[in-house]
Design a protein that fits this description.
alpha/beta; Isopropylmalate Dehydrogenase; 13 helices; 12 strands; binds 3-isopropylmalic acid; binds magnesium ion
């Protein structure tokens, strides 16, 4: 029996709809396992800009630092995507949160629920049994280096930077995770061209002798992008830099059937943040059709990683599995054989998960 403070940070677009369902699942877990979860909410992204002019208001950051864990939705708004000159952008809130909370490790587990074999655009015989855990570095790289314009704005630059300790701390996390799995680590870089990648490879190579039970492989990012689709079972744990990880995990979401299924955990020295890897999806916002399963699975990661509640976390994952086994789908994971009455909206599929809890 535990008492915890959970901060819900829905952000923009479907973030609102999916975190509402994730919260209900946490509530149900608290009731079933006799825990007390206290909730508060905070603003980030476009909604925060509208309310305060700031994509991450100080008040939100303070609440995050004080809470035991954050259930996060998404940030973004199409109006900024088509306005490259905008100085204040929703994504700045997300990046600032990652930096300020020291969330340097982003864990993105890619696992296909058997029932979704047909939902992927990849052939079932290639996918079956694929199970990958990505460690994406989250507070360095080209995302956070100096950027700007010169030559009267006609030239733009973004500097990619990594320090030894930054590679080492994420490297250790990945090695340790590999130990608890199939003991294979693939480090992805572009060391044939990029200097930060050469440092990356050097650091991972230096760590390797400390983990003699883990088999290490180094792969260039272009090859990794290809093999991920050709032979995903070849990977166990993958560790990579911020930008490569951003791109490869969107690609890998197709292994899990849909972006709507993938949860992630961002952890570091303080409060952990749990969020779907999908974005704000304004094209379907407010229609009640968004897939909340990634937010529910993010809640499962939160229970496991931040609270050490293994049984609770497994109960959530097993409930999602049962809902899929019962044939229920949201639109994004339905296929030609899904009967119309099994295709549910955001709230309705959330309620099915609650029933199994
Ligand atoms: C993600 C997103 C973010 C990123 C965007 C919204 C800034 O794509 O979490 O993967 O690039 O990290
Ligand atoms: Mg991304």
């Amino acid at each position: 029996m535990a008492s915890k403070n959970i901060l819900i940070v829905p952000g923009d677009g479907i973030g609102q709809e999916v975190t509402a369902v994730g919260k209900k699942v946490l509530d149900k877990i608290a009731a079933r396992f006799n825990h007390t979860f206290h909730y508060d909410e905070a603003l980030i992204g476009h909604v925060a800009i509208e309310a305060t002019g700031n994509p991450l208001p100080e008040e939100s950051l303070e609440k995050m630092k004080k809470s035991d864990a954050v259930l996060f939705g998404a940030v973004g708004h199409p109006k900024y995507d088509n306005d490259p000159s905008a100085k204040v952008r929703p994504e700045q809130g997300l990046l600032k949160m990652r930096k300020e909370l020291g969330l340097y490790a982003n864990l993105r587990p890619i696992k296909l629920f058997d029932e979704l074999l047909e939902a992927s655009s990849i052939k079932p015989e290639i996918l079956k049994g694929a199970d990958i855990l990505f460690f994406r570095e989250l507070t360095g790289d080209i995302y956070f280096g100096e950027k700007g314009r010169k030559n009267n704005g006609d030239t733009a630059y973004d500097i990619a930077e990594y320090s030894r300790y930054e590679v080492e701390r994420i490297g250790r996390k990945a090695f340790e995770a590999a130990r608890t799995r199939r003991k294979k680590l693939c480090s992805v870089d572009k060391a044939n061209v990029i200097e930060t990648s050469r440092l990356w490879r050097e650091v991972i190579q230096k760590l390797a002798p400390e983990y003699p039970d883990v088999e290490v492989e180094h792969m260039f990012v272009d090859a990794a992008a290809m093999i991920l689709i050709k032979d995903p079972r070849r990977f166990d744990v993958v560790v990579t830099a911020n930008l490569f990880g951003d791109i490869l995990t969107d690609e890998a979401s197709q292994i899990a059937g849909s972006m709507g299924m993938l949860a992630s955990a961002s952890v570091g020295d303080g409060t952990g943040v749990y969020e779907p890897i999908h974005g704000s999806a304004h094209d379907i916002t407010g229609k009640g059709v968004a897939n909340p399963l990634a937010s529910i699975l993010s809640a499962a990661l939160l229970l496991d990683i931040s609270f050490g509640m293994k049984a609770e976390s497994e109960a959530v994952i097993s409930a999602v599995d049962k809902v899929l086994k019962a044939g229920f789908r949201t639109r994004d994971i339905a296929d030609a054989n899904t009967p119309a009455d099994k295709i549910l909206g955001t709230e309705a599929i959330g309620n099915e998960v609650l029933k199994f809890l």
